[in-house]
């Protein structure tokens, strides 16, 4: 009997829930990473404005490429501790850069548009990343989980 079929119904439920969470978070971060490749000039301007650093085009492309690779690792669930944690840390850095906008989540601009809505969304995503990392051992439907069931104590899980 295949090991995947021996998972309890709770393990299957946990695995499906974490699969949905993992794919959603990987897609969320992938979109930001892909835009670094598509519109690198925009990210040069953002780095200059927010971080006060000048990045070359190749640095933006390299950052985007590395982030895309991490997103793919998260999507399939390989190198889970490293890849999930790396995306969590990247997103935490984004949240830290916007912390002052959390103080007034209901602020409106002069046309009545909410201006601090996206940072509040960032907090929900941060919570989802933390949950994903904390639940790695229940991520049974990932490639790392499958490999771990077949090869206990494997370095790639």
Automatic annotation (TrEMBL):
Source domain of life: Bacteria
Localisation: Membrane
Pfam families membership: DoxX
Keywords: Membrane, Transmembrane, Transmembrane helix
Membrane topology: Multi-pass membrane protein
Spans through the membrane: 15-34, 55-78, 120-137
InterPro entries: DoxX
The protein's name in its UniProt record: DoxX family protein
Species of the source: Roseovarius phycicola
């Amino acid at each position: 009997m295949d090991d995947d079929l021996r998972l309890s119904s709770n393990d299957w439920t946990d695995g499906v829930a974490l699969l949905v969470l993992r794919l959603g978070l990987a897609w969320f971060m992938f979109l930001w990473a892909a835009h670094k490749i598509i519109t690198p000039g925009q990210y040069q301007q953002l780095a200059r404005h927010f971080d006060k650093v000048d990045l070359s085009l190749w640095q933006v492309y390299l950052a985007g490429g590395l982030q895309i690779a991490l997103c793919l690792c998260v999507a399939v669930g390989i190198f889970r501790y490293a890849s999930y944690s790396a995306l969590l840390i990247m997103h935490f850095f984004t949240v830290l850069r916007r912390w002052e906008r959390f103080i007034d989540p209901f602020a409106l601009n002069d046309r009545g548009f909410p201006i601090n809505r996206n940072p509040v969304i960032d907090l929900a995503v941060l919570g989802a990343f933390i949950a994903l990392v904390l639940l790695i051992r229940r991520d049974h439907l990932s490639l790392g989980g499958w490999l771990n069931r077949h090869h206990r104590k494997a370095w790639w899980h």
